[in-house]
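Ex. 9. Protein: 4-diphosphocytidyl-2-C-methyl-D-erythritol kinase.
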Amino acid sequence: MSTGLSLMAPAKLNLFLHITGRRADGYHELQTLFQLLDWGDTLTITADHSGEIHLSGDTLGLAPEDNLIVRAARALRHGDRGARIHVDKRIPSGGGLGGGSSDAATTLLALNQLWDCGLSNAELQAAGLPLGADVPLFVAGHSAWAEGIGERLRAVELPENWYLLIHPGCHVPTGEIFSARELTRNSPAITMAAVFQGAYRNDCQEVVARRYPEVAKALNWLAKFGESRLTGTGACVFSRFDSQASAEAVAQQVPESWQAYVARGINRSPALSELS
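Predicted C-alpha coordinates for 4-diphosphocytidyl-2-C-methyl-D-erythritol kinase:
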Protein backbone atom coordinates (compact mmCIF):
# COMPACT_ATOMS: atom_id res chain seq x y z
CA MET A 1 0.00 0.00 0.00
CA SER A 2 1.64 3.24 -1.14
CA THR A 3 1.22 6.29 1.07
CA GLY A 4 -0.05 9.53 -0.46
CA LEU A 5 -1.04 11.54 -3.51
CA SER A 6 -2.02 15.12 -4.34
CA LEU A 7 -4.23 15.35 -7.43
CA MET A 8 -6.28 17.95 -9.27
CA ALA A 9 -9.99 17.17 -9.60
CA PRO A 10 -10.82 19.10 -12.78
CA ALA A 11 -13.98 21.07 -13.46
CA LYS A 12 -16.04 20.48 -16.61
CA LEU A 13 -18.28 22.42 -18.95
CA ASN A 14 -21.32 21.15 -20.79
CA LEU A 15 -20.81 22.73 -24.20
CA PHE A 16 -24.44 21.86 -24.91
CA LEU A 17 -27.16 19.85 -23.16
CA HIS A 18 -30.24 18.35 -24.80
CA ILE A 19 -32.83 16.44 -22.73
CA THR A 20 -34.19 13.74 -25.02
CA GLY A 21 -36.50 11.87 -22.66
CA ARG A 22 -37.36 10.78 -19.14
CA ARG A 23 -37.02 7.22 -17.89
CA ALA A 24 -39.48 5.39 -15.69
CA ASP A 25 -37.07 5.67 -12.74
CA GLY A 26 -37.11 9.48 -13.02
CA TYR A 27 -33.65 9.89 -14.56
CA HIS A 28 -33.42 11.95 -17.73
CA GLU A 29 -32.00 10.75 -21.04
CA LEU A 30 -29.68 13.35 -22.51
CA GLN A 31 -27.01 14.24 -24.99
CA THR A 32 -24.11 16.48 -24.03
CA LEU A 33 -20.53 17.34 -24.85
CA PHE A 34 -18.26 17.43 -21.80
CA GLN A 35 -15.20 19.69 -21.93
CA LEU A 36 -12.66 19.15 -19.15
CA LEU A 37 -10.82 22.20 -17.79
CA ASP A 38 -7.29 22.75 -16.52
CA TRP A 39 -8.67 24.17 -13.26
CA GLY A 40 -10.39 22.57 -10.30
CA ASP A 41 -10.15 21.33 -6.73
CA THR A 42 -7.05 19.71 -5.22
CA LEU A 43 -7.31 16.50 -3.18
CA THR A 44 -4.45 15.33 -0.96
CA ILE A 45 -4.99 11.71 0.02
CA THR A 46 -2.93 9.62 2.41
CA ALA A 47 -3.65 5.93 2.91
CA ASP A 48 -3.36 4.20 6.27
CA HIS A 49 -4.56 1.13 8.15
CA SER A 50 -6.96 2.91 10.50
CA GLY A 51 -10.10 1.50 8.88
CA GLU A 52 -11.52 5.05 8.94
CA ILE A 53 -12.05 7.82 6.38
CA HIS A 54 -11.10 11.27 7.70
CA LEU A 55 -12.00 14.30 5.57
CA SER A 56 -10.72 17.84 6.13
CA GLY A 57 -10.80 21.16 4.28
CA ASP A 58 -13.88 22.79 2.80
CA THR A 59 -16.45 20.03 3.15
CA LEU A 60 -19.37 22.38 2.31
CA GLY A 61 -20.91 21.64 5.69
CA LEU A 62 -22.07 18.21 4.54
CA ALA A 63 -22.45 15.27 6.89
CA PRO A 64 -19.99 12.45 6.02
CA GLU A 65 -22.77 10.22 4.70
CA ASP A 66 -23.77 12.97 2.26
CA ASN A 67 -20.28 13.93 1.10
CA LEU A 68 -19.40 12.31 -2.23
CA ILE A 69 -15.71 12.09 -1.31
CA VAL A 70 -16.47 10.01 1.77
CA ARG A 71 -19.06 7.92 -0.07
CA ALA A 72 -16.58 7.22 -2.87
CA ALA A 73 -13.93 6.11 -0.39
CA ARG A 74 -16.38 3.87 1.43
CA ALA A 75 -17.40 2.28 -1.88
CA LEU A 76 -13.86 0.88 -2.22
CA ARG A 77 -12.88 0.33 1.42
CA HIS A 78 -12.69 -3.06 3.07
CA GLY A 79 -10.66 -4.58 5.88
CA ASP A 80 -8.39 -2.14 7.71
CA ARG A 81 -8.01 0.24 4.77
CA GLY A 82 -8.29 3.86 5.81
CA ALA A 83 -7.42 7.28 4.47
CA ARG A 84 -7.02 10.93 5.34
CA ILE A 85 -8.36 13.20 2.62
CA HIS A 86 -7.91 16.97 2.50
CA VAL A 87 -9.85 18.95 -0.11
CA ASP A 88 -8.88 22.42 -1.30
CA LYS A 89 -12.13 23.62 -2.90
CA ARG A 90 -12.10 26.01 -5.84
CA ILE A 91 -15.08 24.75 -7.86
CA PRO A 92 -18.25 26.45 -6.55
CA SER A 93 -21.04 24.20 -5.32
CA GLY A 94 -24.20 24.21 -7.42
CA GLY A 95 -22.40 25.84 -10.33
CA GLY A 96 -22.84 23.10 -12.92
CA LEU A 97 -19.09 22.52 -13.10
CA GLY A 98 -19.11 18.99 -11.67
CA GLY A 99 -17.08 19.69 -8.53
CA GLY A 100 -18.62 17.04 -6.31
CA SER A 101 -18.53 14.39 -9.04
CA SER A 102 -14.94 15.21 -9.93
CA ASP A 103 -13.87 15.02 -6.28
CA ALA A 104 -15.57 11.62 -5.95
CA ALA A 105 -13.97 10.31 -9.15
CA THR A 106 -10.52 11.53 -8.11
CA THR A 107 -10.98 9.80 -4.75
CA LEU A 108 -11.82 6.52 -6.52
CA LEU A 109 -8.81 6.80 -8.84
CA ALA A 110 -6.41 7.68 -6.03
CA LEU A 111 -7.55 5.05 -3.54
CA ASN A 112 -7.65 2.34 -6.21
CA GLN A 113 -3.90 2.94 -6.51
CA LEU A 114 -3.07 3.68 -2.87
CA TRP A 115 -5.00 0.67 -1.60
CA ASP A 116 -3.80 -1.59 -4.43
CA CYS A 117 -7.40 -2.48 -5.30
CA GLY A 118 -6.48 -3.40 -8.87
CA LEU A 119 -9.79 -2.31 -10.39
CA SER A 120 -9.90 -1.39 -14.07
CA ASN A 121 -11.05 2.04 -15.18
CA ALA A 122 -14.32 0.52 -16.39
CA GLU A 123 -14.88 -1.09 -12.98
CA LEU A 124 -14.20 2.22 -11.27
CA GLN A 125 -16.71 3.93 -13.58
CA ALA A 126 -19.33 1.36 -12.57
CA ALA A 127 -18.51 1.93 -8.89
CA GLY A 128 -18.87 5.68 -9.38
CA LEU A 129 -22.17 5.75 -11.27
CA PRO A 130 -24.37 5.27 -8.15
CA LEU A 131 -22.66 8.37 -6.69
CA GLY A 132 -23.70 10.58 -9.61
CA ALA A 133 -24.23 10.49 -13.36
CA ASP A 134 -21.15 12.66 -14.02
CA VAL A 135 -18.74 10.56 -11.93
CA PRO A 136 -17.91 8.10 -14.77
CA LEU A 137 -16.83 11.05 -16.96
CA PHE A 138 -14.18 12.11 -14.45
CA VAL A 139 -13.07 8.52 -13.83
CA ALA A 140 -12.64 8.00 -17.58
CA GLY A 141 -10.69 11.25 -17.53
CA HIS A 142 -11.27 12.53 -21.05
CA SER A 143 -13.48 15.15 -22.70
CA ALA A 144 -16.39 13.20 -24.12
CA TRP A 145 -19.64 12.98 -26.01
CA ALA A 146 -22.20 11.55 -23.58
CA GLU A 147 -25.62 9.94 -23.87
CA GLY A 148 -27.93 7.89 -21.65
CA ILE A 149 -28.04 9.65 -18.27
CA GLY A 150 -24.53 10.86 -19.02
CA GLU A 151 -22.76 7.57 -18.41
CA ARG A 152 -22.43 6.38 -22.04
CA LEU A 153 -19.21 8.11 -22.99
CA ARG A 154 -17.24 8.45 -26.20
CA ALA A 155 -13.89 10.19 -25.80
CA VAL A 156 -13.42 13.13 -28.18
CA GLU A 157 -10.59 15.51 -28.98
CA LEU A 158 -11.81 19.10 -28.62
CA PRO A 159 -10.02 22.36 -29.39
CA GLU A 160 -8.22 23.55 -26.27
CA ASN A 161 -10.01 26.90 -26.17
CA TRP A 162 -9.91 29.44 -23.36
CA TYR A 163 -13.07 30.09 -21.37
CA LEU A 164 -14.30 32.75 -18.98
CA LEU A 165 -16.60 31.32 -16.32
CA ILE A 166 -18.84 33.49 -14.15
CA HIS A 167 -20.52 32.37 -10.95
CA PRO A 168 -23.25 34.90 -10.09
CA GLY A 169 -23.38 33.95 -6.42
CA CYS A 170 -26.41 31.68 -6.24
CA HIS A 171 -26.71 27.91 -5.75
CA VAL A 172 -28.87 26.05 -8.29
CA PRO A 173 -29.94 22.55 -7.14
CA THR A 174 -29.84 20.00 -9.96
CA GLY A 175 -32.94 18.23 -8.64
CA GLU A 176 -35.01 21.40 -8.82
CA ILE A 177 -34.20 21.99 -12.48
CA PHE A 178 -34.66 18.40 -13.60
CA SER A 179 -38.04 18.27 -11.83
CA ALA A 180 -39.25 21.59 -13.27
CA ARG A 181 -42.54 21.16 -15.10
CA GLU A 182 -41.51 23.62 -17.80
CA LEU A 183 -38.28 21.77 -18.70
CA THR A 184 -38.15 20.56 -22.31
CA ARG A 185 -37.77 16.77 -22.23
CA ASN A 186 -38.33 15.78 -25.86
CA SER A 187 -35.45 17.28 -27.81
CA PRO A 188 -34.75 15.14 -30.89
CA ALA A 189 -31.47 13.25 -30.93
CA ILE A 190 -28.67 15.16 -32.63
CA THR A 191 -25.40 14.13 -34.26
CA MET A 192 -21.99 15.31 -33.15
CA ALA A 193 -21.46 16.83 -36.59
CA ALA A 194 -24.59 18.97 -36.17
CA VAL A 195 -23.30 20.24 -32.82
CA PHE A 196 -20.00 21.31 -34.35
CA GLN A 197 -22.01 23.17 -36.99
CA GLY A 198 -23.74 25.15 -34.25
CA ALA A 199 -27.08 23.32 -33.91
CA TYR A 200 -27.15 23.12 -30.11
CA ARG A 201 -28.45 24.71 -26.91
CA ASN A 202 -28.79 23.95 -23.23
CA ASP A 203 -32.38 22.87 -22.58
CA CYS A 204 -31.97 23.86 -18.91
CA GLN A 205 -30.78 27.40 -19.58
CA GLU A 206 -34.17 29.05 -19.96
CA VAL A 207 -35.52 27.29 -16.86
CA VAL A 208 -32.55 28.32 -14.70
CA ALA A 209 -32.52 31.90 -16.02
CA ARG A 210 -36.23 32.33 -15.29
CA ARG A 211 -35.96 30.97 -11.75
CA TYR A 212 -32.66 32.65 -10.87
CA PRO A 213 -32.51 36.31 -11.98
CA GLU A 214 -28.79 36.59 -11.19
CA VAL A 215 -28.06 33.85 -13.72
CA ALA A 216 -30.11 35.73 -16.32
CA LYS A 217 -28.14 38.91 -15.54
CA ALA A 218 -24.83 37.08 -15.92
CA LEU A 219 -25.90 35.56 -19.24
CA ASN A 220 -26.94 38.96 -20.55
CA TRP A 221 -23.76 40.66 -19.32
CA LEU A 222 -21.43 38.06 -20.82
CA ALA A 223 -23.32 38.13 -24.12
CA LYS A 224 -21.77 41.55 -24.76
CA PHE A 225 -18.43 39.81 -25.33
CA GLY A 226 -19.47 36.62 -27.13
CA GLU A 227 -21.92 33.74 -27.01
CA SER A 228 -22.89 33.17 -23.38
CA ARG A 229 -24.08 29.76 -22.25
CA LEU A 230 -25.12 27.96 -19.07
CA THR A 231 -23.15 24.86 -18.10
CA GLY A 232 -25.18 21.86 -16.97
CA THR A 233 -28.01 22.68 -14.59
CA GLY A 234 -25.97 24.98 -12.38
CA ALA A 235 -25.48 28.68 -11.85
CA CYS A 236 -22.28 29.19 -13.83
CA VAL A 237 -22.25 30.74 -17.28
CA PHE A 238 -19.36 30.78 -19.72
CA SER A 239 -18.08 32.07 -23.01
CA ARG A 240 -15.24 30.94 -25.29
CA PHE A 241 -12.28 33.19 -26.10
CA ASP A 242 -9.45 32.96 -28.59
CA SER A 243 -6.71 33.53 -26.02
CA GLN A 244 -6.00 33.64 -22.31
CA ALA A 245 -5.32 37.37 -22.55
CA SER A 246 -8.70 38.15 -24.12
CA ALA A 247 -10.53 36.04 -21.51
CA GLU A 248 -8.67 37.71 -18.66
CA ALA A 249 -9.34 41.17 -20.08
CA VAL A 250 -13.09 40.53 -19.82
CA ALA A 251 -12.68 38.82 -16.43
CA GLN A 252 -11.30 42.08 -15.04
CA GLN A 253 -14.57 43.79 -15.96
CA VAL A 254 -16.84 41.27 -14.24
CA PRO A 255 -18.99 42.93 -11.53
CA GLU A 256 -17.50 42.55 -8.05
CA SER A 257 -20.55 40.70 -6.75
CA TRP A 258 -19.76 37.78 -9.11
CA GLN A 259 -16.82 35.38 -9.21
CA ALA A 260 -14.82 35.05 -12.42
CA TYR A 261 -12.53 32.20 -13.45
CA VAL A 262 -10.39 31.83 -16.56
CA ALA A 263 -9.59 28.26 -17.61
CA ARG A 264 -8.38 26.36 -20.63
CA GLY A 265 -10.17 23.41 -22.14
CA ILE A 266 -8.17 20.18 -22.01
CA ASN A 267 -8.84 16.69 -23.30
CA ARG A 268 -7.17 14.52 -20.63
CA SER A 269 -7.68 14.82 -16.89
CA PRO A 270 -4.60 15.96 -14.94
CA ALA A 271 -5.48 13.37 -12.28
CA LEU A 272 -5.40 10.52 -14.76
CA SER A 273 -2.17 11.81 -16.31
CA GLU A 274 -0.54 12.02 -12.88
CA LEU A 275 -1.58 8.50 -11.89
CA SER A 276 -0.34 6.98 -15.15
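Check your answer against this statement. The first strand starts at residue 4 and ends at 22.
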